[in-house]
Sequence to fold (108 residues):
Amino acid sequence: MKCAMLVDVDHGRVSPKRCTSRTSSVGQHCYLSCSPGYRVVGNPVRTCQTSGLWSPETTSPYCEKDSLKPFIQCPSDVQVDLAPHMSSAYVRLPQPKANVDWFSSPSG
Fold:
């Protein structure tokens, strides 16, 4: 049993490329990622099922314009007293609060 080719998504990319260029075998996973400035709506992972249908069988995921404005809130000031005769100290700063992914590379 095979699943039909997935269609390309506006402002996004389905990978691996074979998911949109030919039928897929049972168990094949296909992933949707969106262009910068867009976000995935729905489940970005589709899997070819033994029924020949893609799972999940709900509405196909798509990319929509990301309307969230970046937000960042810096932590409060940190003050550290040095021990007598010390010229430096190890200071651990808390991560700022934000609505961005800290682990992805910025692009523009």
Remarks:
- The domain at 2-65 is CATH 2.10.70.10 (Complement Module; domain 1).
- The mean pLDDT is 87.
- The first strand starts at residue 2 and ends at 3.
- Residues 75 and 96 are 6 Å apart (CA to CA).
